[in-house]
Amino acid sequence: MFSHVKELQYNAKPSQPDPVYAKKLQEILGGQYGEMSVMMQYLFQGWNCRAESKYKDMILDIGTEEIAHVEMIATMIAQLLDGAPAHDQEQGAKDPAVEAVLGGMNPQHAIVNGLGAQPNDAAGYPWNARYTIASGNMLADFRANLNAESQGRLQVVRLYEMTTDPGVRDMLSFLIARDKMHQNQWMAAIEELEQTQGAVVPSTFSTEHEIQDVAYSFMNFSEGEESSTGRWANGASLDGKGTFEYVQNPGANGQKPELKPSPAYIHGTPPLDMRIMQNGGGIQPNQQ
Amino acid sequence: MFSHVKELQYNAKPSQPDPVYAKKLQEILGGQYGEMSVMMQYLFQGWNCRAESKYKDMILDIGTEEIAHVEMIATMIAQLLDGAPAHDQEQGAKDPAVEAVLGGMNPQHAIVNGLGAQPNDAAGYPWNARYTIASGNMLADFRANLNAESQGRLQVVRLYEMTTDPGVRDMLSFLIARDKMHQNQWMAAIEELEQTQGAVVPSTFSTEHEIQDVAYSFMNFSEGEESSTGRWANGASLDGKGTFEYVQNPGANGQKPELKPSPAYIHGTPPLDMRIMQNGGGIQPNQQ
Amino acid sequence: MFSHVKELQYNAKPSQPDPVYAKKLQEILGGQYGEMSVMMQYLFQGWNCRAESKYKDMILDIGTEEIAHVEMIATMIAQLLDGAPAHDQEQGAKDPAVEAVLGGMNPQHAIVNGLGAQPNDAAGYPWNARYTIASGNMLADFRANLNAESQGRLQVVRLYEMTTDPGVRDMLSFLIARDKMHQNQWMAAIEELEQTQGAVVPSTFSTEHEIQDVAYSFMNFSEGEESSTGRWANGASLDGKGTFEYVQNPGANGQKPELKPSPAYIHGTPPLDMRIMQNGGGIQPNQQ
Amino acid sequence: MFSHVKELQYNAKPSQPDPVYAKKLQEILGGQYGEMSVMMQYLFQGWNCRAESKYKDMILDIGTEEIAHVEMIATMIAQLLDGAPAHDQEQGAKDPAVEAVLGGMNPQHAIVNGLGAQPNDAAGYPWNARYTIASGNMLADFRANLNAESQGRLQVVRLYEMTTDPGVRDMLSFLIARDKMHQNQWMAAIEELEQTQGAVVPSTFSTEHEIQDVAYSFMNFSEGEESSTGRWANGASLDGKGTFEYVQNPGANGQKPELKPSPAYIHGTPPLDMRIMQNGGGIQPNQQ
Amino acid sequence: MFSHVKELQYNAKPSQPDPVYAKKLQEILGGQYGEMSVMMQYLFQGWNCRAESKYKDMILDIGTEEIAHVEMIATMIAQLLDGAPAHDQEQGAKDPAVEAVLGGMNPQHAIVNGLGAQPNDAAGYPWNARYTIASGNMLADFRANLNAESQGRLQVVRLYEMTTDPGVRDMLSFLIARDKMHQNQWMAAIEELEQTQGAVVPSTFSTEHEIQDVAYSFMNFSEGEESSTGRWANGASLDGKGTFEYVQNPGANGQKPELKPSPAYIHGTPPLDMRIMQNGGGIQPNQQ
Amino acid sequence: MFSHVKELQYNAKPSQPDPVYAKKLQEILGGQYGEMSVMMQYLFQGWNCRAESKYKDMILDIGTEEIAHVEMIATMIAQLLDGAPAHDQEQGAKDPAVEAVLGGMNPQHAIVNGLGAQPNDAAGYPWNARYTIASGNMLADFRANLNAESQGRLQVVRLYEMTTDPGVRDMLSFLIARDKMHQNQWMAAIEELEQTQGAVVPSTFSTEHEIQDVAYSFMNFSEGEESSTGRWANGASLDGKGTFEYVQNPGANGQKPELKPSPAYIHGTPPLDMRIMQNGGGIQPNQQ
Fold first, then answer.
1. In the record, which residues are listed under signal peptide (chains A, B, C, D, E, F) (predicted)?
2. Quick one: three-class SS letters along D14-73?
3. How confident is the model at residue C237, as a pLDDT?
4. In angstroms, what separates the C-alpha of D12 from chain E's closest C-alpha?
5. Does residue A260 lie in a domain region?
6. In angstroms, rounded to a whole number, what is the distance separating the alpha carbons of residues D226 and D246?
7. Percent of chain B with pLDDT over 90
8. Which end of chain E, N or C, is more open, meaning fewer C-beta atoms within 10 Å of its C-beta?
């Protein structure tokens, strides 16, 4: 169960309206790596958690914090839209500055949302649940979380560069710090899991059912060999159980595929001989 | 530019058709973390790569390999669908086994694809590009890649458990090994980058513009404190630049938000006084 | 800001696992009118609210409750999936009952979510933000909310009929009661608004800019006249400002549309004369 | 069956082209609450209608009218796009006004649709069927319809404010009047149904299977109590069968959820003891 | 404008309910190539038509017919769902046949649609407008239409094979005939256009701005040469203006791409030298 | 299996950056008819191909070429974005030209992709797999391919008109030529198939199961008869097996649909008599 505190977690007050920037800020609200994504991802991971309770609690603590981040950004966007010039000016008095704003803002902010935030990204594309994952394997999911916080902080930093409004920057400075903590948090949790169960997900699959020959080979599928000079092609593998090998000309070891014709009731392209005689009758699978 | 080798990278021959399993196998072809996702993610990361050429080459090598994995799984699915009983039986002779197959298979495999693979997941949901990311920041993207290979290998392993067909298992054993390599590969590339630029993405944002107070604090947004016992709440932070702190009762430090009424031309809910007097006239912003 | 209480709002314990029912229950979690929809719809309406604070508070109170409902259903689904037989049986010992379960359950519950709830509907389609609305006009939005609670309660009732599990029914009985309250709540809020501002949304648009002739006419676009006998075609209009009229043969009062040919640089179908002479030369807009 | 009348239902002629406004007008054509949504929603409700024929006829009459509205708006958009400057100007002669138009118009109107309307909204997002509902319960569905006409009229009014073109305003004045009628129509139909069957959807579920304690309680999930002063927390409930009650501190009455570990073949995070001993072997569910 | 005729265009009466088949039949109602697609595609092509009126009229005539086809199939589906066993049986008396039906039917048909048709496909995926095209170039669009009628008829035929219900087959026999006509119709319209303007779309682009060398070459991007034996690699090109050529080893004629580093404010991966010195300071683009 | 050649198939170098044009160019990369669509469509058709090997080889050759086209356009877009002014200018020095660029460019190109191409269209909508088809019937699919190449070339030509950059035009001139070849290629393959199996898809369905009366009739569903003058209403049908007929007043030959009330456990609108007596008790299907 949840309860609401009316104050925001941190300041969310722009110094002045800026409807064009409001459109951009939507990315970290309802985008692929916006706050809605981490909020939903963490809540579902927490609710589905089958491990010991310190994990469930930790995941839900951060998931609960993310609801507050969604709230802060939504509040900020509504204020950036305050008094947006979303109506027609008198014929003879069009102001180029107003035109510029109207051209750059998202028209749905006025038409659909009446100067409110929308649960969409900077292109107006709606948030959807396929942005999230809760797999039941915590090491896999914590890697998803570390990625989400990395992409997310990167986007907030880029948005910081796109404004000079002190109020907006103040809020972003808070989010940037929290995203640093959250990257650290998931790195810590990953380290803890990797030390007890190993680095490869899932750790529970027996290696005897893997094709061992190719488990540590970097395969070069191009002509040059620039790719041979990286860490991924030299030295011990990161899981501590193998050695990287560089395969210059990886071969094709499978069959040349040939599929059987489909049965008549599928009405695919008929086999060649039937195709040719067909004008004189052809197959008629539906006769009964 | 690319060229095609007609043989598959590895065997993809089922021992017998199994249209119900074909539906499940779609997940690792066209699902959120299927082979189409890593193929497209790596290709776009490679084409957009602005770093030194060993990275571009490495990323495109693995992207090119993933096209071959898509090819193998598509070929496998087509064969699992061979001769699927996608037509009606005579009224009086319905076979429960056939019924079971028809109930469990994806009807689109017959109606839409004529017993071929489709670029969708196990629920029939089409693959889409929001499954992928190419952010221009390699450390962020390699974390996305490590996550994708972790989720992907987990799903292949689960699918391995769901069949006993030796041919299918043979192909999956190959993919499971390659996904192990790919996890190792991205871990190696991540290590290389972290060592030179630090662990937090992006590394180029000046800490003086972050709210330092909250950059290493784990905040407890629930009553109990199970979450205080993990690595994420104790000791040095993983970026080596701070110390984790556990905040038992994180406060709300922002304003209690109050938004201004919208302008008349937005036709939001009118302010209270106007709402009440309205039946006698009301505001009419569109008079001109 | 939000905080989490570890206990659920109400019991969510099935008497026994039922993975097939888990698939169906997803509808009221992540479907068009599931709990995620009302949660997100109310939260965004609350955050964007520009009216007096009793409304903002009320909307956020119910939005906060809905997060708890999502939590309850997610928890229920995870337990319904406990021990789902998501793996292959030995060749010679296939159990028809197990087969039936495997055929009817959502394979993604095992492959993707590791026996956890997913933020999707009963067809596996992901929740998306276009299920919600926050328009800035409370009367419009409260009608959306009344609709959502009506569709939602209808679906919960249908799901109640589809199970006899006492634990599941217990939770549904709670949700059915809350949805009754929520219907009553929105009806009350609507009544309050309609009494002060009138029943038509938006109330602030001047009637002199409407085509009055057609503002209270029911138009019959078919041959018979069964539609003439309803309340919508007889008596005073519900906004108290007009009288319903039944138009037997509504005419077409607009032009017969004819569009100009597109400019040459659009390369639409060329006008007839150019189309004919084209092989001898044609227009070449791109010459420069 | 349907037949087409070549004249439009009402005038749809702009006074002059305006490609930037064309982009905005797409919202009421192919948006969440545009004419395509009500057209499809009413047609499917009509075709699925299992009640007496006056309802089926009424719903299909209005559904048929909505096709004509889609036609009018599509025609209007095509004319607003007439001669849009969708090509490059000579290098040295860029006109700021042309630039402004090119920046604000939807490039797909030229590239994809050759200066024609598209079945999308103002952000270019395609119309989809999850915007509609046909539930088989008319009271629920008529509430959906009343909401759709309320949101729809609100958007048309906002678009009216965004232009001064007399031809566009003429068409919108017609649509605004029809949307007023349609709101009245659904209110009338709702009143008719509520009077015979009660106000709560569905009316057919026995109250003895509801948790009565919470069926009329407003629950306060925040610290302050502004929400206690509304109609929804005081007096008789709107269904006439209960009394609203305000619950200041709603308790958590459910369990603190704890989920069992998943079976080995799911490869979720292993239980703690297995996780620790794992490097020395671990579980291997796939051995056979 | 449109008007509705209450009778269906043709019979749509199943001999008996079959909820499992109802799920499959959804494909030709709301699928990628279902009747909703051709209905919407033709209506938008007609409304946007800028060519002479015989085309606009023809396109709208067939678009209007398609609404009737949607109506027929929706009606059929509702009847196939009549009395579907969408509720739980008594504990001790589960009927395997009922179970089978419940496993194979779409649960949303009961939960969401109350035994009515839904505007979705056989996987429950909602229809969306990106299934359609109206490009403003009739030759391009008529090819889209011919494709749609070909895929559509193929799917109807496959569904015919999947049932023996005489009532269902009767309706499908009608649709199969109409789809044959519609294929013929678009072939006729295509022939008419190709004869006056040539076969390549668009016909209005000057060939002097094409790279002529590659305008008639089949390029072999694989090792073997089976592809050299088709009509596409031999003889006169179909547009009558060139000769097919088979290129055994098509070369790469472009640059080896190298992209510049991104500016500092983008926070992409820093250039190598900056990456290395970074721990001692690094770039700080946001200092001001 | 595939291998990568580091050079591009053809030049992809703009003469100068143009971030606004980059947004438009996305259409032919990740749009409905962009290069990702033909790439994926051909690859899946090839992998699923059940006909003789010259077809499989041909389809995969062109599918492999399309990967190279995606690569070229992605590379072009990244360069068009070089140095895009995606950050805020000093307060007092806003440059109108910079503003214009910021208003017209896709903000996600900076925020999400760090000045790289994205797998989306010109409206920022992500590519999805429902843009493609692989039906197993080659004649149907080749018509899909001819359509895709027609729509695709039309869009490339329109984009050619929208720029004067010689480098961009050079690349587009190559693509326009290849699209001409690909139209010719599919026309040739279609001709080959039509000559052996007839023009109607599928050719294998027995005409005795079609309603012959309507197999060659053009039906006029409107008042005027402009549609009677086209090739589609006169002369021999294009499949050579019938004669076109123009039906002036096509009748409705089906039933007037009436659906049965739904069972009680569906909780649809109750039948009229139950609806009326309901307040005194009503049906209670869930009593047990």
1. none
2. CCCCCHHHHHHHCHHHHCCCCHHHHHHHHHHHHHCCCCCHHHHHHHHHHHHHHHHHHHHH
3. 96
4. 12
5. no
6. 11
7. 85
8. C
| Residues of chain B contacting C125 with CB distance shorter than 8 Å | 123, 125
Q: Note whether A110 and A236 are same-domain residues.
A: no
Say which residue the tokens 């589906």 belong to.
E77
Give the pLDDT band (50/70/90) at residue D181. very high
Triad B264, B269, B272: Cα angle to 5°: 95
Q: What phi and psi, each to the nearest 5 degrees, are found at residue F59?
A: -65, -40
pLDDT at E275: 81
Domain that includes residue C228, residue range: 207-247
Residue holding tokens 């009014």? D157
Q: Do E286 and A161 touch (CB under 8 A)?
A: yes
Q: pLDDT for F98-126, tens place per residue?
A: 776 777 899 999 999 999 999 999 999 99
pLDDT band at E274 (very low <50, low <70, confident <90, very high): confident
Q: How confident is the model at residue A161 (pLDDT cuts 50, 70, 90)?
A: very high
Q: Do C83 and C213 belong to one domain?
A: no
pLDDT digits (tens, 9 = 90+) for A125-146: 999 999 999 999 999 999 999 9
The two structure tokens encoding residue A219: 């395969």
CATH code at position C44: 1.20.1260.10
Residue C75 lies in a domain: yes
- Note whether E44 and E66 are same-domain residues: yes
Q: What is the pTM of this model?
A: 0.95
Task: State residue C89's pLDDT score.
Answer: 58
The minimum CA-CA distance between B1 and chain F, rounded to whole Å, is 5
Contacts of F270 in chain C (CB under 8 A): none
Residue D202 per-residue DSSP state? S
Is there a single domain that holds both residue B77 and residue B29?
yes
Cis peptide bond N-terminal to A202, omega within 30? yes
Phi and psi of C105, rounded to 5°?
A: -85, 165
Of E161, E267, E288, the CB nearest to A157: E267
The answer on pLDDT for A11 being more than 50 is yes
Report d(CA C56, CA C48) in Å as an integer: 8
What pairs with residue D243 in β-bridges? Answer: D236
- Structural domains in chain E (count): 2
> Average pLDDT, whole number, for chain A?
92
Distance of alpha carbon F214 from alpha carbon F252, whole angstroms = 13
**D175 lies in a domain?**
yes
Are D46 and D117 contained in the same domain?
A: yes
Reading the block at residue E217, the tokens are: 């070459």
Rounded Cα gap, residues F225 and C188, in angstroms: 55
D159 domain-assigned:
yes
Closest CA to B267 of A79, C140, C57: C140
One domain, residues C109 and C237:
no
